[in-house]
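User:
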Amino acid sequence: MSTLLLVDIECQETCNSRFNSLSFALRRDVHFPRLRNTGILIEFGECMIIRGTFIFVYLLLFSSPMLLAASLTLGSPIVLGQSCALSGPAQNLGHEMRAGLLAAFSSINDNGGIHGRELILLSRDDGYEPDEAVRNTKALIYDDQVFALIGAVGTPTSKAVAPIVSEVGVPFFGPFTGAEFLRTPFNKYVINVRASYFQEMERLASYLIDNKKISRVSCFYQNDSYGFAGLRGIENALARRGMKLVSKGSYERNTVAVMGALRDIYKEEPEAVVLVGAYSACAEFIKLSRNKISQDVIFGNISFVGTESLREALGGYGQGVVVSQVVPSPHYTDIPLITDFKTNMAKYQHDAPISFTSLEGYIVGKLFGKIALGVKGELTREKFISSMEEVGWFDLGGLVLRFGPGDHQGMDTVYLTQIYPTVQELKGDDL
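Assistant: Predicted structure:
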């Protein structure tokens, strides 16, 4: 049998050194010629095989059983699958989440892997569209036979694949969403790292109403399950204070068509607008608001917006914009985990930004490795989950995550940041 493998020339030496893991992946029916149509990205530590950038070609001839046997000498790799936005208006989130995961996996692999087994990430582009996420997820599970799904990006895409996860019994690990349906009702196969959108909205409501004494709040939201999750969160937070939204307006996913929402929201003259959207649409809404609306308005975004991408898109329009965060600042200097994160990003993912999103990806990757290392005996999906619940407490280096039976959310802390002139956490008098 002949298998054509296409490899970036810059990764030639790394791929040579990773030949054993690579040949085993081929034997597991990771069909590289199909990549031209699937948009799959495959990572072997630092080595990337990516559609559309191939300039070096290997022809691997698997005609001898002895050659196949030789590929197993270092232990079979642990293959993980990711469906995320690598194109379209939300692509920065997917690329950054992926970069953080890869930096974590490369560090783990270079330090012995999981008891000698390398972690390999297969990433497929869903463009932040649920139908594509379903296709990707089925391919990752049934064709690529991944151990777990990891680092999914988005609420609508996660909602579309959640039934598949439950049916097949594949861990859905560290998705980049705070949607409530991934927390309630409890699903043993869903493992959340971050705080929920409800928790983020409570934090924003506390800032706007309890601290800033604002009484007129509106909501700009994406017209899908992500937007509805955030909308419900702010409505619940206001209801606890005996308040209601004065207005709301929506836009369609993967667009920046926000003028209708602008008119709907500002007819009631809000003092603050809470935004539940992707960075491109939120930036468009804020810029139009600044240009067309005379009153001063505070804008509060939840973490999925992508802080650095929003800040870059807004420039000087970012004054008065607040973003809730579910991980510490990636620029902290007193947390060992963040020092390791920046070191490993520079070593393995030096072209990717240091951001809240890439830090979240790194935390997800490190946590997966720590749980997997603690499993006694053979690593199976069920033992992975039960070991996580039994150990319960995971210190990644100054950042502790806690799990247990019936509790699959590792962190609950929500931070607030301003984004102009620089991204800084709001503390004390700043609140």
